[in-house]
User: Fold this.
Amino acid sequence: MKSKITIASTSFVLPKNSSWRALHAFGEISFADYGDYAGSLMRAAPDEIVVFIVFVQDLAKEPANREGSSEPDVRPILSLLERRAASAHEPTILAISSWSPRSVVSAAKHGDAASLMSRALWDSVDRMRDAHPSLLTIDLDRLLGVDGFAKTFDARNWYFAHCRLSQAGLAIVAKSIGEILDRRVNPRKKVLVLDCDNTLWGGVVGEEGWERVALGEEGIGAAYADFQRAAKRLAANGVLLALASKNDEGAVWEIFDRHASMVLGRDDLVAAKVNWTDKTVNLRELADELDVALDSFVFWDDSPFERAMVRAALPAVEVVDVPDDVTRWPQLLANLESLQAFAYTSEDRKKTDQYRSRATFSADLGKASNESDFLDSIKMVPRLHAIDADTLARAHQLVLKTNQFNLRSVRYSREQIAALAADPRNVCFLASLSDIYGDHGLVGLAICREVAARTAFLDTLLMSCRVLGRHFESWVLASLADKLRARGVRFLVAEHIPSDRNAMCAAMLAAHNFVPLTDARPELDAVAAAGQHAGARYIIDLDSAAIPNEVAWNVDDALENPRRTQGAVIGD
Assistant:
């Protein structure tokens, strides 16, 4: 079902303008009547997305408020926003422009009504945004200022159509709204793959030697160093960094190890392909090694030839059109939208270490002669966690990003997850895991709806690929079964909606004693209505079927779970 998106503005925004067409990909778009932005915000349903575009010029015509103060009154707008944000299940996107034409001389000593109102509005909105996760903001002054206000505002449009913006301005506003709507439903890219020569430093290290490449704190060398700093900041927020360079491997590692101005170190990288192999081959191998789909890759290379080769052979990879001017690179990389997220979790900041530990685990598991003994030996400690204000961002991240172990691949919004978790009829939780390889963080999510007498529907079951191979899914299912039995639930129905990456889920259900649901039963009609998709359905009788895989778990004493005994065994 498509989302409903209402766009309201203090000015007219030309609803039939071509700039808005791209937004129809995100839902059914409707525009509030000119002058009725307040009524539109009040009438919007909680499950509608609302975009509210505010031009402070429109609000600042009368600078004095009702008490006679010279301060402009922002309370009516704030009241509207507070009412909307408090009741909404879907985002409210507030876009604010405070620009107004002003003489340099007149502005040198006194602020005008628009600038005063803008400050008051932003101060209050910043606090409101912290209190209401569904409220998102766009600073239009920053975006429109890139191309210049003279180009993005249009006086003729204002006088003839009451539209503040030019065609260029409308296109920028629509694009910025589209970026936010896209990130709501599509996760950011996971992996940034970088070239080395003339990308991380200037020059060819194999020819010039590590001492003579352009890299430092002055001139063009400073631009390369700042580019590395931008990459390092992305890595700190969960982007995985990898190298794909046609080069002599020894020369590359020499500059990493010996050059004093290298910002990136070996420990900032999760993988490297430094060889003379075609880069399209190396990218495929990186995807296999990291177990990350190519559509999660961003490729940055100074060579137009290499970019064209990757773009042609691997269309799923995002290839950045790198400008010739290296001084533009740091800012371009730091603000690359495909690598940005609304918020960053503690798990994001551990991502590089977690992928390294996963590689070590896989290697050790491959050497083990007995899987069960090996898994017992790594001292796994699982734990359940409520979905609350502290964990909601991670739950949403898992819903957006998890592909391989994801039964139904339904991409709920943050607000929808919060509503599901708040419903007392549902059983919802996150699951974390630690072992001798490290703390893997919140890596599992279960959402189960009680839909009929003694019958529940497994709406969502997903798990990060970095903990696969440990039978953690068995522990999560056993924990879920315990909670459902405590509620008197006997039958658990699951649905597998196939995607191009989640084939393992069907085999997992069969291995855990779920059987195909082939007989029509009246009490399961509600189950069919619970899902928006039609997939293969399975059922398990919790009174008679056990969850398999007897692995010893060191269950945390603080676990919010009936299985509290140290060394509890799944399936007991």
